[in-house]
UniProtKB/TrEMBL annotation:
Organism: Dyadobacter soli
SUPFAM superfamilies according to UniProt: E set domains
Classification of source organism: Bacteria, Pseudomonadati, Bacteroidota, Cytophagia, Cytophagales
Name of the featured protein: Surface glycan-binding protein B xyloglucan binding domain-containing protein
GO molecular function, one term: polysaccharide binding
InterPro entries xrefs: Ig-like_fold, Ig_E-set, SGBP_B_XBD
Domain of life (superkingdom): Bacteria
Pfam families per the UniProt record, alphabetical: SGBP_B_XBD
Chain ranges of the Surface glycan-binding protein B xyloglucan binding domain: 207-383
Amino acid sequence: MTRQFIISYLSLFAALAVTAIINMSCEKDDLPNNGEPVISFIRVTDPEDADSLLTGAGQGDLIAIVGENLQDAKEIWFNDQRGSLTPTYITSTTIIVTVPAHIPDEITNKMRIIFSNGKTLEHNFEVKISEPLISAMLSEYVPTGGVATIRGDFFYQPLTVTFAGGKQGTLVNVKDQEIQVTVPEGAQPGPVTIKTKFGETKSDLWFRDNRNIFLSSDPFTGWWNAAFVVSKPGPGDPPAINGNYIRVKKAIGGWQWTEVAGGPPDAMGAISKNIPDSAILKPASYFLKFEVNTIKPYNNNVLKITAGLAGGFNDSQYTWLPPYDTKGQWQTVVIPFDEIAASYESAGSKLAVSDKGYYTRLLFHGGGDLDCDMAFDNFRVVRKESD
């Protein structure tokens, strides 16, 4: 290889290198913002609300980050919590990501995007930590000193549980979606309030809910089976949770007609008028609730429930179906009242307001033999949302 050839080769290589640098520089100059990542705005992902711009979002919300030169994003952080990036949801102009649900240890109200070249883009963005959500209680009736179980979400410690009457319970156990708390002396019927540093929530449900009870056996009224009423629980009986309760302890054969409780309005008395007119007119706004304790599993047959019928009994009334097993503990059953109303209407018995009261019946009548040992109390129709 001659000296002249080597010089020519080096000259060509140098020229190509300069050309590449010039081209790279031109390409960078051609990119928006000279190729530097930038966030223009953040919005919701629903196309119908695409004009709704965000300065913050709640835990678990799906958001769209809109900007330029975002295609090389490798990590995203909200406060000190890392979000999960999906490559197919990343383009040069958009990143679609879910806000992490876990609460941060340090709140900075900043979002950080880290790119493959190590650069970081920071943007002001608030993650709105949810206040407590109360969805249900395992049992809405728990004696003083007993442990109540509250279900919901966003139970971030430290927290307090306050019962109606202003008495705080003692925490036994706290999980993400469940609180166990000892019921204090002086707890009254009414909503439960849970407070964290992120907010305070009063429940729609009532603890020891005493509203609109239409079947309780305190005292016994009606046509059927006063012998099922337990007034003084003895050994082997479930504990009383609100005065007398009904316990059905017998073998019930398939399609055997076993009336447990109830009667027409004139036999039930004033309690038959306790279902609100608004529940009859707008059943979708109400629940039927009652407490049940299955000493033996409810695993066969059918319990038919009459509640709110003004014109008489209907043998095709609402059916509460097995299986259900509380394993010897009191639990609250919650049934949307519009489901019950719809079952009556499909059987030819439309709900109608009655100033004389309503027919009531609990009737076991279905296929399959049931070795029945079940207790019931506090049948009531209550609003889904607190007044």
